[in-house]
Write a structure and sequence with these properties.
alpha+beta; 32% strand; binds adenosine monophosphate; binds magnesium ion
Length: 566
């Protein structure tokens, strides 16, 4: 199937013809055009603004179309998606499919539109209200085609709606958003010692056969396989590292150490334990079928890909790379992280707080949380002063950070400045708060390739937001987008847990351990997101749906591990 995909800022030409070569061969041509409606959430609008992460969107669309073509074979399909400001009545998307019969093309277009909503990172950025339209976009024009089909492209994420004030985002919406916003960072070559935990960006192939030569797998004596004698003369010794090719004659043996390169073909190594030696006289006491040789290429052949691109490098993988001479693998670079702990009340942990002050625990939490990723953040404590914060983020050390973590000030209080700060620095605010607890105040913002989080200062909320959302961003930066960030594990409650019917979904701190082969979760005590004591032992978060009531010990629950790399 011929596939054409375009993501464009230009108006879509709905009259564009099919490629010439299809004329006469396609029995059916189905066209779908999604036009922007003049209303959004009950408010009149002048336009919708769309945003896309184009490389991934194009890739995803192609993947979906190729998969659908298996069930609905078509000759040709063209998808054109417009981004930027799309005035009311104009097309945001056009899909054209040509097939031998109408059924395939109809089914392919319909299923593609469903999948597009779910899987492709194109989303409505905001609705342009009628009053704003004059300064934001051209006046709305009439629909440019007789195609009357309309689509209702649901946003994939928390968007500003027509009233200007966004609704709170659920945890899974925030996670899905982060997966789309966080672009895999560039690749770099690093030495193996620095590559632990990084994502490999190109396949690593064996340069030569593994093992590269026939090697003895035991300490013993090499003799000809076809020489059935029991008495031999030892003619030489081979230690690991030696290279002594020679043809053994009947009655000759060579002493070989484990790992030693065999002198030739057609040999067997009789184990040291199975012989008796006196001077250069060797008597074989026992001999069986076992050749005790690791043959050249038995583990891998030269040119064979041994580690795939996308693999997260663990200790074993690094050892393999070392063995095949891949001493500087090409991996995703680490994000540069800036962490600002804000608040007039916080003092360093080694100081005695004055009246009204508390010790800063979030800086330690952030540093320790990032350590397993190999990330050392640039950290500073800043008083609640917008100008000071601005100068901090503009300092040479902060410049170029890929990820900003701002602790505190994420809420809606008078002194909660994070959102104002980010807006004044031209960040687009995608999330302002969540429907989850702890961690209701949460800001997610973006400027180009930089992601910024405004994290709630309360320590338990901080812990939850780092382990859920910041982790998802780090995974996206690392290019690990194949992992569903909200794919929870299942575990068993070790004690009763009362969700209290709370209207918000809850991430309940817990301690997991293995019991009878299953993950057993002990819920920890907490009553406020400012509580710290649960952090002494918390290593998991139990996910309770909104409205969850009493769960008895033994119930199955969703949970996610914390402080570990997935
Ligand atoms: P905020 O998010 O700034 O409104 O802060 C919420 C709560 O978290 C307040 O009680 C703060 O004192 C506390 N808090 C803020 N930053 C920190 C920090 N770095 N360490 C410990 N607690 C903090
Ligand atoms: Mg504060």
């Amino acid at each position: 199937m011929q596939i054409e995909i375009a993501i464009t800022l230009e108006p879509i030409d709905l009259r564009r013809a099919l490629p010439n070569e299809l004329a006469g061969s396609a029995g059916a041509v189905v066209e779908f055009a999604g036009l922007v409606r003049g209303e959004e959430n009950g408010q009149p609008i002048a336009a919708l603004e769309y945003e896309a992460y184009s490389p991934m969107a194009e890739r995803e669309m192609r993947r979906i179309l190729e998969a659908l073509a298996v069930a609905h074979p078509c000759r040709y399909v063209r998808v054109t998606h417009r981004v930027g400001v799309v005035p009311v009545g104009e097309a945001a998307i056009q899909v054209v499919a040509a097939s031998a019969h109408r059924a395939e093309a109809l089914a392919l277009v319909a299923e593609f539109m469903d999948r597009l909503k779910q899987d492709v990172p194109i989303w409505k950025r905001r609705a342009v209200l009628v009053a704003q339209a004059s300064c934001r976009c051209e006046p709305a024009s009439a629909a440019s085609s007789e195609t009357a089909s309309r689509q209702d492209l649901e946003p994939h994420r928390q968007d500003a709606c027509a009233t200007g004030e966004p609704r709170a985002a659920s945890a899974s919406e925030v996670l899905a958003l982060l997966r789309q916003l966080g672009r895999p960072l560039a690749a770099e070559r690093v030495v193996l010692a620095e590559a632990l935990g990084r994502t490999l960006r190109e396949p690593a192939c064996a340069l030569e056969d593994q093992p590269p030569f026939d090697r003895s797998s035991v300490d013993g004596y090499a003799v000809r396989l076809d020489d059935c004698a029991t008495q031999f003369r030892i003619v030489d010794e081979i230690r690991a590292g030696d290279w002594k090719p020679r043809e053994l004659r009947a009655g000759e043996a060579m002493r070989v150490a484990t790992g030693g390169a065999l002198p030739g073909d057609g040999l067997q190594v009789v184990m040291k334990e199975d012989v008796h030696v006196e001077g250069d006289r060797l008597t074989v006491l026992r001999r069986n079928e076992e050749r005790n040789i690791r043959s050249r290429g038995e583990d891998a052949r030269a040119g064979q890909a041994l580690v795939e691109a996308g693999t997260v490098l663990q200790a074993g993988t690094l050892a393999l790379l070392a063995s095949i001479g891949c001493a500087q693998p090409r991996v995703t670079r680490l994000p540069r992280v800036l962490h600002l702990a804000t608040g007039n009340e916080i003092v360093p942990p080694d100081q005695t707080p004055g009246r009204g002050q508390i010790r800063d625990s979030n800086s330690t939490l952030v540093r320790a949380f990032l350590a397993p990723w190999g990330i050392v953040p640039e950290q500073r404590c800043v008083a609640e002063d917008e100008e000071r914060l601005k100068s901090e983020v503009r300092s040479p050390k902060s410049e170029g950070a890929d990820l900003w973590l701002i602790s505190g000030g994420a809420s809606v209080g008078e002194h909660d400045f994070t959102r104002r700060l980010l807006e004044s620095l031209d960040f687009t605010i995608h999330v302002r708060r969540t429907t989850a607890r702890p961690g209701k105040p949460l800001i997610v913002a973006q400027r180009g390739g930089t992601l910024a989080f405004g994290l709630p200062g309360n320590p338990l909320a901080h812990f939850v937001c780092l382990n859920l959302y910041v982790r998802a961003a780090l995974e996206a930066f690392a290019g690990r987008t194949d992992e569903a960030p909200d794919a929870f594990q299942m575990g068993v409650l070790a004690a009763d847990l009362d969700g209290g019917g709370n209207a918000r979904e809850t991430f309940w701190p817990a301690r997991w351990e293995l019991s009878d082969g299953a993950v057993s979760l002990t819920p920890l005590r907490w009553s406020s997101s400012g509580d710290l004591t649960a952090l002494a032992t918390a290593n998991a978060l139990i996910h309770l749906a909104a409205g969850a009531g009493k769960l008895t010990s033994g119930s199955q629950v969703e949970f996610s591990f914390t402080t570990e790399r997935a």
